[in-house]
């Protein structure tokens, strides 16, 4: 990783000399001719240290120091001055300067000072990163205070310690993998591996050998025996992501493995006993897949011992501010920026947008905004266009009360009907003919209902 230093001095010759010196020490160097330009530069680009003159014609070093630290308090700033004024030095250190050097510079002292400054700033970034990893090792934190998320946490706490197979349902980006990890980390198997297989990522034959392993020579290219993911997960948890994409023939083999607790490497007839807990996830509605003969019913029942539904973000907009603030903190830190938060307009737009890509889309939008942001708050300008367009949309209508247990009892029939229509349209990617077919009504009836519920 390159180390980048910003040199601030209004004396061109002195600045040029410092640039050459620092480059010869292996640093990348940017320059600014006054304090204003220095603050601008720090907002636009991440630095490992700033070296600034104190006496400058426009905005002096002390003001620049304040501006820089207001923006990024962790950035080490080293001041240089020709006048050894104790008061200025004390003032600078009190304001948070890293150190204070007297001109003419002692280059060896400068070299050491820069080195120390950079080490220290790296350490503090690394420490925070380590601390984050440690807390994640205790199980990922599932953020949110909406009733839906509170309930999600409660189900995880109840189900995790059991050996039950779990099927996690939810749209893409809602946090299915996060839930799977939380289940594993809160289980007795936490000290054993959590192995993930994405069933959509591989062709059928490769997926089979990925899951069950293969013998040497089992097929062209199998030049070594290979253990499958089942065996790697022995004693732990196997997370089968996107299970809805698994080819039918393989579903049969998976079912056998689950029922018998045994797997066979491709090209072998010797079964291996494995002790694996399976968690599966999908963004498809497996009941529909079963009805349409794309998913084995027996496997569906075997997997769906416990069902966990991860709700889409638009059903719990109250979680948006908390999640956004969490991601902003992460990405501001990674990009070494000190951004205080979101402008009210930006937050308002984020609340209006419906986030079809759910939490992942929100995370990506915030990361992008953190990188683009040059001020101390995220404004609508830094939000992706699709999100910003939500500025014109009305605030989301109050959602019908949702029963915690997924039961429909007590809901208004109109609400049930509306939800069935909305959800089916989403699942069919807004294909009205297909949605009407699945709902068991004609297209004309669907249109009438769309009009009735204002869903057109
Ligand atoms: N409640 C939450 N609190 C904190 N982070 C979350 C939450 N939900 C999701 N995330 C984060 O959002 C991102 C997407 O989550 P995840 O990968 O688990 O979604 P997914 O449902 O598996 O998506 P896909 O269907 O696309 O695979 C991850 O970075 C995850 O850490
Ligand atoms: Mg996933």
From TrEMBL:
Compartment(s) where it occurs, according to its Swiss-Prot or TrEMBL record: Cytoplasm
Domain Sigma-54 factor interaction: from-to ranges: 142-371
SUPFAM superfamilies xref list: CheY-like, Homeodomain-like, P-loop containing nucleoside triphosphate hydrolases
GO BP term, pick one: phosphorelay signal transduction system
Keywords: Activator, ATP-binding, Cytoplasm, DNA-binding, Nucleotide-binding, Phosphoprotein, Transcription, Transcription regulation, Two-component regulatory system
Positions where 4-aspartylphosphate occurs in the chain: 53
Domain Response regulatory: 4-118
Coiled-coil annotated residue ranges, if any: none
Gene Ontology terms for molecular function: ATP binding; sequence-specific DNA binding
Keyword Nucleotide-binding attributed: yes
GO CC terms in record: cytoplasm
Any Pfam family the entry gives: Sigma54_activat
Domain of life: Bacteria
Listed PANTHER family: PTS-DEPENDENT DIHYDROXYACETONE KINASE OPERON REGULATORY PROTEIN-RELATED (PTHR32071:SF117), TRANSCRIPTIONAL REGULATORY PROTEIN (PTHR32071)
Protein name as annotated: Sigma-54 dependent transcriptional regulator
């Amino acid at each position: 990783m390159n180390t980048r230093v910003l040199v601030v001095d209004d004396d061109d010759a002195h600045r040029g000399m410092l640039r050459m010196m620092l480059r010869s020490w292996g640093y990348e160097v940017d320059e600014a001719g006054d304090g204003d330009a220095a603050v601008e530069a720090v907002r636009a680009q991440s630095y490992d240290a700033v070296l600034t003159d104190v006496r400058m014609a426009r905005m002096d070093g002390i003001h620049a120091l304040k501006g820089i630290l207001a923006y990024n308090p962790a950035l080490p700033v080293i001041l240089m001055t020709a006048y050894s004024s104790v008061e200025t030095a004390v003032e600078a250190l009190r304001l948070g300067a890293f150190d204070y050097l007297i001109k003419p510079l002692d280059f060896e002292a400068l070299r050491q000072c820069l080195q120390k400054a950079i080490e220290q700033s790296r350490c503090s970034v690394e420490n925070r990163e380590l601390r984050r990893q440690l807390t994640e090792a205790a199980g990922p934190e599932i953020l949110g205070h909406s009733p839906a998320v509170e309930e999600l946490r409660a189900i995880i706490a109840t189900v995790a310690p059991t050996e039950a197979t779990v099927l996690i349902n939810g749209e893409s980006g809602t946090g299915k993998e996060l839930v799977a990890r939380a289940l594993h980390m809160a289980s007795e198997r936490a000290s054993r591996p959590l192995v993930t297989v994405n069933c959509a990522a591989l062709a059928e034959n490769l997926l089979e050998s990925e899951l069950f392993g293969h013998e040497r020579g089992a097929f062209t290219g199998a030049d070594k025996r290979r253990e499958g993911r089942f065996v790697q997960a022995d004693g732990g948890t196997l997370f089968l992501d996107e299970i809805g994409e698994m080819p039918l023939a393989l579903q049969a083999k998976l079912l056998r493995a689950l029922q018998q607790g045994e797997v066979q490497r491709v090209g072998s007839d010797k079964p291996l006993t494995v002790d694996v807990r399976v968690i599966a996830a999908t963004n498809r509605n497996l009941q529909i897949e079963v009805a349409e003969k794309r998913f084995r019913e027996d496997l569906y029942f075997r997997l769906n011992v416990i069902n966990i539904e991860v709700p889409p973000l638009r059903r719990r907009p109250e979680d948006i501010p908390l999640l956004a603030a969490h991601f902003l903190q992460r990405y501001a830190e990674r990009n070494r920026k000190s951004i205080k938060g979101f402008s009210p307009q930006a937050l308002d737009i984020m609340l209006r947008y419906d986030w079809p890509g759910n939490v992942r889309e929100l995370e990506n939008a915030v990361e992008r905004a953190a990188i683009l942001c040059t001020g101390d708050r995220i404004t609508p300008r830094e939000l992706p266009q699709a999100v910003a367009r939500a500025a014109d949309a009305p605030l989301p209508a109050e959602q019908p009360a949702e029963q915690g247990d997924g039961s429909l009892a007590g809901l208004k029939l109109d609400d049930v009907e509306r939800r069935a229509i909305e959800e089916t349209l989403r699942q069919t990617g807004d294909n009205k003919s297909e949605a009407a077919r699945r709902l068991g009504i004609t297209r004309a009836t669907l249109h009438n209902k769309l009009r009735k519920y204002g869903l057109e």
